[in-house]
Amino acid sequence: MQKPFLTVDGLSKTYGNFIAVSGISLEIGRGEFFSLLGPSGCGKSTLLRMIAGFENPTSGNVFLDGANVTKLPPERRPTNMMFQSYALFPHLSVAKNIVFGLVQERLPKNEISARLSEVAKKLQLEALLERKPSQLSGGQRQRVALARALVKRPKVLLLDEPLGALDKNLRSETQDELVRLQKELGLTFIIVTHDQHEAMTVSSRIAIMQSGRVLQVGAPETVYEAPISRYVAKFLGEANIFDVASASQDHGWANVRLSGFDTPFRARIPAGISIDGSLWLSVRPERIELGRDGAGIRGVVEEVTYTGAQRRYRLRLPTNATLDVVKVNGGGDDFHVGDAVVARWADEAAHLLAE
Ligand SMILES: Nc1ncnc2c1ncn2[C@@H]1O[C@H](COP(=O)(O)OP(=O)(O)OP(=O)(O)O)[C@@H](O)[C@H]1O
Question: Could you give the ipTM of this predicted complex?
Answer without folding.
Answer: 0.92
